[in-house]
Amino acid sequence: RDPDWLSALACSAILYLLWKPFSVYDMGFQLSFVTVAAFCLFLVPSRDVPEGPVRHWLNLAKETGWAGLVASVFSAPLVAYHFGRFSIVGVVANVLIAAVVPAIIVVSFVAHFVSFVWPAAGGAIMQWFVKSWIGYLYAVLDLMATPSWASVAVPEFNAYALVPLYVAAIVAWRVHVRRA
To answer: Kind of pairing, strands 151-153 and 85-87?
Structure first.
């Protein structure tokens, strides 16, 4: 049976809001849940494993690019509302960052658990691998955010203007039919 990601996301949002009800006004909560909802709606995991390493990496690059595009498009209205700017290079930045973030998370967890047994090794893993990848993230962010043309100013608007935008996005979604 395929997982029901939207129900899981809705359940986590409800539980989180029961714990911290005013988080609904928090920009981080809004961006996180809108972006993950967009992933749930518009990213369909591929069941076909491409043969050969080149096709595998091309497929992975395509899926990463699509995820970057989805994240950029669906977070853009909220970013424009909160910051008054719209990123032109967001898709490229998201793709460059998305390629490294899973590795940072996994290696950080490994370093954490290694540090219980051998603190020096856990620290070394964090110092050599995670710190260098975080440096890469900062370099991408500096490269993409520094140019004046990387984003454009957006006039201030009411938050209620976001409702028709996200309703239109939901209307654009097509139901994923589960395989029998």
So the answer is: antiparallel
